[in-house]
Design a protein that fits this description.
Largest sheet: 5 strands, antiparallel
CATH topology: Neuraminidase
Number of strands: 26
Strand order of the largest sheet: 1-7-6-5-4
CATH superfamily: TolB, C-terminal domain
CATH architecture: 6 Propeller
Radius of gyration: 18 Å
Distance between the termini: 28 Å
Structural class: mainly beta
CATH class: Mainly Beta
């Protein structure tokens, strides 16, 4: 289904391209093959897209929830979904499960997913309780001292030939990774414990030398998806905040953008020269009063007046 998108509002250094009312929007990604920004909604299963040249939007309803997608060199997308790792293609209506990396899918579900600078797909999992729409910010803060029992998530790397390895364990809510311009540094967010880690990446894509990159307080919001620009700075979304923040590789805050919504989820650079930054947001559990306070919650936003363009989107090599 396609329709003309007529909803656009603009504020200070942002504009809402599509008042999509996403419930749990995730995985914003640019696809140069058709000039579209794609994203998924975990709570309303399907792949959505916004066409930059025309402003037209569309949606393909998937048979099961999808939490992350990335373009494949061979066509379509690789996806993290209810059935594990899948090959999907909205144009052909294809949803083909390949394998499930999670040892016990009852305790964890797949979450974010990205492609590194070598064309490998990375995805991770989170505590399955994170998918409960009744979970509020107060609930999250109340359970911050009980996270050891909820650290059921892992981080996986998937090579072009489909082989996968587990690169990290004992994660509560995985988001990322994001990779430096040279691909030798990876940033991973564990959202619930309010921590962002940084790793060294070797030639085979193995992670090592983990150390804290940033730590946060609940008042800062929960660190979520990320995107990296050509200067190596990390744009980080925050859940239950009003901000999108940009950090230098040494962890210094270099920019902060105030938004009209609390739940930023995943930024991504796009456009033919990768000079535009997009952000999908969420509205999980919102009622009419909450929407009255945040009428654009769940919208697809563009962040304006950027200090640097982003890195090109590379496809998964499989």
């Amino acid at each position: 289904m396609n329709w003309e998108n007529k909803a656009m509002e603009q504020g200070q250094k942002w504009r809402c391209l599509w008042d999509a009312k996403a419930i749990l929007g995730e995985s914003t990604v640019w696809d140069a093959r058709d000039g579209r920004i794609y994203w998924v909604d975990v709570e309303d299963p399907g792949i959505r897209w916004f066409e930059l040249a025309s402003g037209r939007t569309g949606c393909w309803k998937s048979p099961a929830w999808i939490s992350a997608i990335a373009p494949k060199a061979s066509g379509g997308f690789i996806a993290s979904c209810a059935d594990g790792i899948a090959s999907v293609d909205p144009q052909r209506g294809l949803y083909e499960p390949l394998f499930h990396p999670i040892p016990d899918p009852a305790r964890a579900r797949l979450n974010d997913g990205v492609v590194d600078r070598k064309g490998r797909y990375w995805t991770g999992s989170c505590d399955s309780a994170q998918w409960d729409e009744t979970t509020t910010a107060d609930d999250k803060e109340a359970t911050l001292g009980q996270l050891d029992s909820r650290a059921t998530g892992e981080l996986y790397q998937i090579d072009a030939d489909g082989a996968f390895s587990t690169q990290e364990r004992n994660i509560v809510t995985q988001n990322g990774p994001a990779f430096s311009p040279d691909g030798r540094t990876a940033y991973v967010n564990d959202s619930m414990p309010l921590v962002s880690w940084v790793y060294d990446v070797d030639e085979q894509g193995n992670l090592g030398n983990r150390r804290d990159f940033l730590t946060f307080r609940p008042d800062d919001g929960y660190p979520d998806g990320m995107a990296v620009d050509v200067e190596g700075h990390i744009w980080m979304a925050f859940y239950e905040s009003w901000c999108l923040r940009r950090f230098a590789p040494d962890g210094t805050l270099s920019d902060e953008r105030r938004l009209p919504v609390r739940r930023g989820l995943r930024p991504a650079f796009g456009g033919p020269d990768h000079s535009r930054l997009f952000l999908i947001t969420g509205s999980q559990g919102y009622d009419k009063d909450r929407f009255a306070d945040e009428p654009l919650a769940g919208g697809l936003f563009e962040i304006l007046d950027l200090p640097a363009p982003g890195l090109p989107t590379l496809p998964y090599g499989g």
